[in-house]
Design goal:
elongated, two-stranded antiparallel ribbon, 50% helix, 3 domains, alpha/beta, five-stranded mixed sheet, disordered N terminus, Conserved hypothetical protein from pyrococcus furiosus pfu- 392566-001, ParB domain
Length: 290
């Protein structure tokens, strides 16, 4: 499923920096072409790895079409510029053999640079879910934000943001599997119900056996409730029902199961992991007061 459409960078900065006006255009901004060697990676870059094959593919595109989108930088010394957003494009441009790259130079303090780097990368650079969670947590820590304000800053729902942050409660070994994209968000949500040792064991089994999210959820439930009788094989679900389950699960950030009954009846089952998680879900389900 594709990522939800995110709000603009300007609104995210407004949330963090307490401004009402848009972040762009700004005074002190300039367009320029700079030598690639005058740029350096930003210290607030949330991306912790860059896929070499992806960089090489981008480099080939740059060779053919040029660098279409300027890199956002700020001056840190004479003829030295720190990248706020666009490090991946800069690295690909170097691979492509470019001597200069187009940049937008902004005069921004450290606080704004942190906000811009994190929000820009979270919104536009297709981060791994774990990298995104780490970036959002850093926003919360650096700016003392609530989950709701952090969600607004990066253009996500509060439920989706809280769900992402829960990834940081996984053990280091399981986080690494998510980081390497051997486990996805659905697997991670299911594994959060287990303690550290079991969590690692089950995660390794999921990877080795190539278990689906539903199979992982059933495996976790069988471990947590070993005395439960084996369930009867479920009938193949209607494609529309499966799509509805997926949409509701994504929107609420938890497992949702739809069980159609007879004559239009049925059950809607929403799973929660703790009382705090239940409280968060109830807030999402309550109607917004006018």
């Amino acid at each position: 499923m594709s990522k939800p459409k995110l709000k603009g960078l300007g609104r995210g900065l407004d949330v963090l920096l307490g401004r009402e006006e848009s972040a762009a255009p700004q005074a002190g901004e300039a367009l320029a072409n700079l030598p690639v060697d005058q740029l350096q990676p930003g210290k607030y870059q949330p991306r912790t790895r860059m896929d070499q094959a992806s960089l090489e593919a981008l480099a080939e595109s740059i060779k053919a079409q040029g660098l279409m989108q300027p890199i956002l930088v700020r001056r840190v010394a004479a003829e030295r510029y720190e990248i706020i957003a666009g490090e991946r494009r800069w690295r690909a441009a170097r691979l492509a053999g470019l001597s200069e790259v187009p940049v937008i130079i902004r005069e921004v303090p450290d606080q704004a640079a942190l906000a811009m780097a994190l929000i820009e990368n979270i919104q536009r650079e297709n981060l791994n879910p774990l990298e995104e969670a780490q970036g959002i947590q850093r926003l919360i820590d650096e700016f003392n934000l609530t989950h709701e304000k952090a969600a607004e800053a990066v253009g996500r729902s509060r439920a989706a943001t809280t769900n992402l942050l829960r990834l940081l409660k996984l053990t280091a070994q399981v986080q690494q599997l998510v980081f390497e994209e051997k486990l996805d968000m659905g697997h991670a949500r299911a594994l959060l119900s287990l303690d550290g040792h079991r969590q690692v064991e089950v995660a390794q089994r999921v990877v080795e056996e190539g278990l689906s999210v539903r199979e992982t959820e059933k495996l976790v439930q069988s471990i947590l409730n070993p005395k439960l009788a084996p369930a009867k094989p479920a009938a193949r679900k209607d494609r529309d029902v499966a799509r509805l389950e997926e949409e509701l699960s994504e929107r609420l950030g938890t497992r949702v199961e739809v069980k159609p009954g007879k004559k239009g009846t049925g059950k809607l089952i929403i799973s929660y992991m703790s009382y705090d998680h239940l409280d968060e879900l109830l807030k999402q389900l309550r109607p917004v007061e006018a």
